[in-house]
């Protein structure tokens, strides 16, 4: 699972001394406004009014228009800090404005979406409410009840009240208030948006986009990839993406939202032809563009002795407990202490860059578990420590971080983990075929002590060893760290090596899927039920998972799981695939 860590920043350090009452109302913007007859319209704030407490120095409501903070990110200009002042707890509201295409009387629903980081309700409750223009009262819609105390950024969604009477003014204004119940702490908001549902549904769209024109090969093909570019299509509502087809096939090899694409995983010294089709949100596709042909360059022979998964094979993620996969599943990921599934492509989860958390059901003496206490007892020198000698811990998961800053530490750590990787190969039922190393981005949780380059130096040891014992290796998350170099960054061997495929959690939710383009169709996506809100594109509303399936379901294996990935038959279990 994604392990972005919380980072508790002192909330009172960067607050402007601007008094108890602060009023900031400035003309705002509209995000993703739907067409005039669309059922939903997403609004960004047009102003911020603080009635008690203060906001951070230099911060404005405009930062709330984009959800761009995840994990422990802390970019001051991209969020708003809400703080008490003296004896006054923070209270204030954001104003939203309906576009002219939506009348106040047509509104049937108002929901609120927030990206929050701050205290839990055990310390301080933050309550969101909608203003009723008829009664001058506030209608509560939600609180920070599901958020951890200063954990990672947490997406909160508050459903619409049953009745929206009075919640929109006669001029189309909506107010959303957030207020703290005490002065003990502050909170940060990276994003706040209102989704308005109107009473008139959009008409059915049966008009296909225009045919993409001007398809060309951009740059020089490599031994395994070809880059393409073309002119944008037009549509009566709006083009949502483009599909790339190869050698006259009917299944797209890539789906993109812009007018460029790089097709990877191609054979060397081979000619390929490509065409493009445009799509809109209703699923209408244009006719195919004119074809373009490109020949890949000569390549080198990749390392032999291991097997890759098949593109778009159905995938199951069983890290929270094992169970018999359904008959259609071809690929199963399980913890390295579990038994692989006979007759399937098995992926072995290895917590490579952090310890396993201490837990009542896990041994602190058995090295196979690799708990924090086991590492403290046996290899304390390999745990990252601050200047006071305290072990640095990923507090979201209670896992200590390995210290890979020196060549000596990296070599010692590999010797301990080699038996774990080899055990994956030699497990029962024919063993695992690949490993899934987690926490490749542990540098993000190292309080600045580890650099991404130092983590990569360790992987330059791990990847060749993994290949040498006959296992493939996946890039697990860490979309920002590798970009297009993930398959070839291990330049200490010849030919260069790297990850063989990718396992990405929530790449649709956080718009990270294009970062894995180097792996072509060997991308296996997991979206989670607790981060699966509705998203509206050009008047069409789908969940995050449904959009992922719409965009890439024909070429990638995409699944929806419950956050705890519990076994089938357990309360809370969810598994869907497309």
From TrEMBL:
Q: Which organism is it from?
A: Glaciihabitans arcticus
Q: Does the keyword Cytoplasm apply?
A: no
**Is the keyword Hydrolase assigned to this protein?**
yes
Can you cite a GO biological process for this protein?
Answer: polysaccharide catabolic process
Gene3D superfamilies, from UniProt? Immunoglobulins
Q: Give the keywords, sorted.
A: Carbohydrate metabolism, Glycosidase, Hydrolase, Polysaccharide degradation
Any idea where the Fibronectin type-III domain is?
211-299
> What is this protein called in UniProt?
Fibronectin type-III domain-containing protein
For this UniProt entry, the molecular function terms from Gene Ontology, in alphabetical order, are: hydrolase activity, acting on glycosyl bonds
Q: InterPro entries, alphabetically? A: FN3_dom, FN3_sf, GH, GH114_assoc, GH114_TIM-barrel, Ig-like_fold
């Amino acid at each position: 699972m994604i392990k972005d860590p919380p980072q508790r920043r002192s909330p009172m350090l960067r607050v402007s001394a601007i008094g108890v009452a602060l009023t900031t109302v400035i003309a705002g913007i509209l995000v993703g406004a739907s067409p005039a007859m669309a059922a939903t319209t997403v609004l960004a704030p047009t102003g911020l009014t603080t009635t008690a407490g203060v906001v951070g120095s230099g911060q404005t409501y405009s930062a709330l228009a984009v959800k761009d903070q995840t994990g422990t990110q802390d970019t001051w200009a991209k969020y708003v800090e809400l703080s008490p002042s003296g004896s006054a707890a923070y209270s204030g509201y954001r104003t939203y404005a309906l576009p002219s295409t939506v009348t106040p009387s047509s509104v049937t629903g108002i929901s609120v979406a927030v990206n929050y980081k701050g205290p839990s309700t055990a310390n301080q409750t933050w309550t969101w409410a909608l203003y009723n223009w008829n009664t001058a009262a506030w209608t509560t819609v939600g609180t920070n009840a599901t958020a951890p105390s200063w954990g990672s950024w947490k997406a909160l969604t508050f459903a619409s009240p049953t009745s929206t009477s009075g919640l929109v003014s006669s001029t189309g204004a909506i107010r959303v208030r957030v207020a703290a119940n005490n002065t003990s702490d502050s909170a940060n908001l990276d994003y706040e948006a209102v989704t308005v549902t109107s009473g008139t549904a959009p008409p059915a769209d049966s008009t296909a986009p225009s045919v993409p024109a001007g398809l060309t090969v951009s740059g020089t093909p490599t031994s395994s990839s070809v880059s393409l570019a073309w002119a944008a299509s037009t549509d009566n509502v709006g083009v949502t993406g483009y599909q790339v087809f190869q050698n006259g096939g009917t299944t797209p090899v890539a789906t993109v939202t812009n007018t460029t694409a790089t097709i990877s995983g191609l054979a060397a010294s081979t000619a390929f032809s490509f065409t493009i089709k445009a799509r809109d949100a209703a699923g209408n596709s244009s006719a195919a563009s004119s074809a373009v042909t490109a020949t890949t360059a000569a390549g080198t022979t990749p390392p032999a002795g291991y097997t890759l998964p098949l593109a778009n094979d159905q995938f199951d993620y069983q890290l929270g407990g094992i169970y018999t996969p359904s008959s259609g599943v071809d690929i199963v990921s399980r913890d390295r202490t579990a038994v692989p599934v006979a007759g399937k492509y098995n992926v072995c989860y290895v917590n490579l860059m952090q310890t396993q958390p201490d837990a009542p059901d896990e041994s602190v003496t058995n090295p196979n578990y690799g708990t924090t206490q086991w590492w403290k007892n046996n290899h304390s020198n390999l745990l990252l420590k601050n200047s006071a000698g305290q072990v640095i811990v990923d507090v979201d998961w209670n896992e200590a971080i390995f210290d890979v800053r020196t060549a000596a530490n990296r070599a010692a750590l590999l010797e301990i983990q080699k038996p774990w990787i080899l055990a994956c190969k030699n497990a029962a039922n024919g063993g695992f075929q690949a490993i899934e190393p987690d926490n490749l981005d542990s540098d993000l949780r190292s309080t600045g002590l580890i650099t991404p380059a130092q983590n990569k130096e360790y992987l330059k040891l791990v990847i060749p060893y993994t290949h040498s014992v006959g296992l493939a290796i996946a890039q697990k998350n860490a979309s920002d760290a590798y970009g297009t170099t993930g398959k070839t960054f291990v330049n200490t061997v010849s030919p260069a090596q790297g990850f063989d495929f990718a396992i990405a959690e929530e790449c649709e939710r956080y718009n990270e899927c294009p970062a894995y383009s180097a792996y072509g169709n060997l991308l296996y996506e997991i979206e989670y039920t607790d981060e699966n809100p509705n998203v509206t594109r050009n008047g069409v509303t789908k969940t995050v998972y449904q959009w992922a399936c719409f965009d890439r379901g024909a070429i990638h294996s995409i699944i929806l799981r419950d956050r705890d990935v519990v076994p089938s038959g357990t309360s809370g279990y969810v598994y869907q695939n497309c």
